[in-house]
Amino acid sequence: MGVETDCMEETEEIQERYGLASERIRAMKEETAVSAPFYEYFQRTADFILEAQRLAEDVRQGRQKEMTLAELQAQNQRLYADVAGDAYEESFANPAFAVRMLGNEYGQMLSFLYTEIRGMTAWAAEQRYEDMTIASELFLEVYNAFEVEEIPSAKSLRQIIYWYISDYCEIFIPQRVREQLDPSLTFAKDIICGSDLSDPRYLYRFGEYITENELGTSRFLAELPQREIEAMASTFTEGYRIGFVNAGIDLSKKKTVNIRWSLGFERVVREAIAQFERMGLQSILYREARHSLNRRPQGNPGYGSTPPSKQFVFDHKEDSALWMDKNLVERRLSVLHGAYEQYKELAAVHAGPAVMEIFGEKPFLPENCKEALKLDEKQRELSVFYNSEAGQLVNRYIPGDERSFTIIAWPIPEIGENFREIFAETVKINNLDYHLYQGIQQKLIDALDQGEYVQILGAGSNRTDMRVQLWQPEDPEKETSFENCVADVNIPVGEVFTSPRLTGTNGTLHVSEVYLNDLKYLDLELTFRDGKIEDFSCRNFDDPEENRKFIKNNVLFNHDTLPLGEFAVGTNTTAYMMAKKYDIGSKLPILIAEKMGPHFAVGDTCYSWSEDSITYNPDGKKITAKDNECSLLRKTDISKAYFNCHTDITIPYDELDSITVVRPDGSRIPLIEKGRFVLPGTEELNRPFEKDADVG
């Protein structure tokens, strides 16, 4: 089924409304009824809408397929020029510029409006005329308010936006749920499986911003032999399958898998689609959400491309501040419940996501835009409430103990001149000897299972001094507290992890520089008392209070505190030395970085929503440490058990002094000293360090 029949479902009413809105916007280009400074805003926004409509018409008429690469690039540039690179500084998408030109309240609202309208590039590509029509009508309603009054009240504009969100959540939310569950929506799949992927023109059919990252990756993969593409895809899809086996979940009961990737990797995606089909799974491919109502500050899942401006994305993380209140939160939850009820049969056979991450982009240190919309304290509480309720609702229709996932990562050209070499080494890291690491990591687990707690100390200027309390196996012959992670759902290989006890877990976690959820933190420090964050700071901004707000928004996700959901010892020293060799440590994704030293995750445990599923390590021992004192609350009050976030923070080996297991009798088992593995049986993990010394 193609996009014309399944994504759009266009009616005569929509066609008529779209035509009327388009005609009105073309006419307003000739009008001067709106006075300065708002005149320029409406003119520039109308220009964008008309450009998006031209894209939609080019797609409808089949002209885009006939364009040259240069013509497609020029079209893509026209659609994204004002939010790309330095141009964002003087774009109405930039709240700071909009406020400077239009005033505080008007600037914030009209910047939100322009950002919402920018989703039209995606909707034009997918021929989703209903979405384009709704956005155009919202624009015209606001424009008409300025025609009726020279400057309408800010309250009246806010009401227009509020009722737009309220009225159309019955369309936007079910639409998003369907995108995530229905394999008959094949827009992206049709492009990938029906295009000549050696011709990069196919990239422009997605409607996303296309840079040298996407073009360079696509061209690079086009050069590789098919067997290498098949091997890359197999590492990914087999990891997914093995994840179900290891978790004791019957994959044969599932029918769909969601593939998430960044544009440029379509050749691997096409092979993954074929391999999943041989497992009996149809692939679902949906893009990152464009509507403010569906965007998630803690992550916007789906396929996408290099953002035209990461500051643009950051500045609009809390746009919901413009419309969020208790009534709308309750309405959203009601509509979400109705949507899952409507698509419950599709939800029941959905297996979970298979994710291809990328790394290599220039590190992003966000600027604090004081003009950007920010949730107030009441709205933060509502946001936490909504996420909790929505998480519980989704779990009822796609139970956590019946789904799994896998994640893998590859570099993109922006990583630098050594892209090809780094790509080759990353492929090797993703395929390290499973059995070798399994045996070494078992030595670590055998030692850790003897401990009452683990002490972790930083080296040099690193101020880490953590005591992590452990659950001890009741039957050490048959049970274990640590999982032996050997590259199934979490590629590459290289960690042992547990859900620690919170009571008795105390101390300071400090990292000089770390990237979490694509944001850079300088001197991040978290203090724990009984396993929960008691205090936090960083050095991103001059004002300590701004630093606290930054962490609370983007690490705690508006919770007052979070528990320590995971403690792990990373063992992938090969990945660590690759990062050192090419000086790319700051560009690695957490997926690889977490294997390069001990890491601590704040938020939910690794087993959230599936704590009662029985899983075993390769040695046959049952993993029993799946809960902490927070997740156990699911048995009495599920709203207090989960936080709907999980953020890994890694201490690199060169900032690490020691990791020591302390038994109940006070005796100690050193695992790492001076940043090197010292436990007997783990010496092999030091070889990459030695090779580097030999080269030096």
Work out the strand percent: 15-25%
Pick out the low-confidence regions: 1-8
The major β-sheet equals: 8 strands, antiparallel
For the biggest β-sheet, the strand order reads 12-11-10-6-5-17-18-19
Report how far the terminal alpha carbons are from each other.
Answer: 58 Å
Mean pLDDT reading: 94
Gross morphology is: globular
Number of strands: 19
Class based on secondary structure composition and strand pairing: alpha+beta
What is the CA-atom radius of gyration, in angstroms?
26 Å
Number of helices: 23
What is the domain total for the residues? 3
| Helical content (DSSP H or I, runs of 4+) | 40-55%
**Quaternary structure type:** single chain
Labels describing this entry:
alpha+beta, five-stranded antiparallel beta sheet, disordered N terminus, 3 domains, 19 strands, 696 residues
List the helices and strands and how they pair.
Layout: H1 3-6, H2 12-28, H3 38-61, H4 69-80, H5 95-102, H6 104-117, H7 120-125, H8 129-148, H9 154-181, H10 187-194, H11 212-223, H12 226-247, E1 256-260, H13 266-278, E2 282-284, H14 310-315, H15 326-342, H16 344-348, E3 350-359, H17 377-397, E4 406-411, H18 419-429, H19 434-448, E5 453-458, E6 465-469, E7 479-480, E8 483-485, E9 495-498, E10 501-516, E11 519-529, E12 532-537, H20 544-554, E13 564-570, H21 573-582, H22 590-593, E14 598-603, E15 622-623, E16 646-650, E17 656-662, E18 668-673, E19 676-677, H23 687-695
Parallel strand pairs: 1-2, 1-3, 3-4, 7-15
Antiparallel strand pairs: 5-6, 5-17, 6-10, 8-9, 9-13, 10-11, 11-12, 13-14, 14-16, 17-18, 18-19
